[in-house]
Specification:
This protein has one domain: Rossmann fold, CATH 3.40.50. By secondary structure, it is of the alpha/beta class. The strands form two sheets. The chain has a seven-stranded mixed β-sheet, covered by helices on one side. Strands 8-9 form a two-stranded antiparallel sheet. It starts with a strand and ends with a strand. Helix content is 35%, strand content 25%. It is globular. Helix 5 crosses helix 6. 41% of the residues are buried. It binds 5-O-phosphono-beta-D-ribofuranosylamine. The site of 5-O-phosphono-beta-D-ribofuranosylamine (GRF) has 15 residues, from helix 1 and helix 6.
Length: 208
């Protein structure tokens, strides 16, 4: 049974999808054992407490820089004996002093089809604003492993939605969350816990 630690910063709808999936047996050989938030006011913490999952708050603004924050986070992950770290709406870029300790063991969900609309400055509604501004006809979400560059690790799963003429950033965000994020993230976590993801030449392959 792999220990899953989920990092959050906000509403926690992706965390809720993981909690619900675990409850109905959708995450094989894995258990969410801790939720760590970068903000004390994240509603994701309520969701964790309602599911009897232990929580830790590691407030980014209490640390002078990214390296010291990442070092403190690394200590928390070791205390939790994390086998898998899931970034679920986590808004902090972690330093390589942490990502190198967990190569291909940190999973992130990005609300666009990487390599589009990703990297520095592309987060939350900004991603969907950029997609609509460009005029793309499909968008979606990407579940990928995390390395030292933002949104740049091996892609595990992707899912797409049609962009409607009257979509706003808010409606597009919601459509992608409901139809893609909340389905793909639990699926990717379960595949990892079942040891069904293989990395070859820097790319991730699912063992069918
Ligand atoms: C989601 O759109 C997710 O793709 C992004 O953060 C947003 C909020 O996630 N990473 P959540 O509701 O806090 O899980």
């Amino acid at each position: 049974m792999k220990n899953i630690v989920v990092l959050v910063s906000g509403g926690g709808t992706n965390l809720q999808a993981l909690i619900d999936a675990e409850k109905c047996g959708g995450i094989k050989n894995g258990k969410i054992t801790r939720v760590i938030s970068s903000r004390a006011d994240a509603y994701a913490l309520e969701r964790a407490k309602n599911a009897d999952i232990s929580t830790v708050v590691l407030t980014r603004k209490e640390f002078p820089d990214s390296v010291s924050y990442s070092r403190a986070m690394l200590e928390e992950l070791k205390k939790a004996n994390a086998d898998l770290v899931v970034l679920a709406g986590f808004m902090i870029i972690l330093d390589e002093c942490l990502t190198r300790e967990y190569t291909n063991k940190i999973i992130n969900i990005h609300p666009a089809l990487i390599p589009s609309f990703c990297g520095e400055g592309f987060y939350g509604l900004k991603v969907h604003e950029a997609a609509l501004k460009y005029g793309v006809k499909i968008s979606g979400a990407t579940v990928h492993f995390v390395n030292e560059k933002a949104d740049a690790g091996p892609i595990i799963l992707q899912g797409a939605v049609d962009v409607a003429n009257d979509d706003t950033p808010e409606t597009l965000q919601r459509k992608i969350m409901e139809n893609v994020e909340w389905k793909l993230l639990p699926k990717a976590v379960s595949l990892f816990c079942e040891d069904r993801i293989t990395i070859r030449d820097g790319k991730a392959y699912i063992d069918l």
